[in-house]
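Pasting as-is:
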Amino acid sequence: MPELRFLPAAGKYFKKLKEKGLKEKFNQAIQSILENPFIGEAKHGDLESIYCLDVFYNKTNYELAYVVYQEENQVIVVIMAGTRENFYENLKRYRK
């Protein structure tokens, strides 16, 4: 099974989540990523090598961005999570 790590931005976001249903949706998404790391949509251009997975909850679209490193043991690093609004602009800023 791949190793899972969180960057500070993602860790803070998950720590602040209070809604149990949304936490459960994100946990299910992370389990899906651990089972098949390439389940998310591969991004191009400025966000090359980043995968994003949509998480739908309560009529709102959330995103989960992560990178898969192919070393001896596969490592999945969750970069950022949040609502779709301004998500990609924030992700580009965070990546720089």
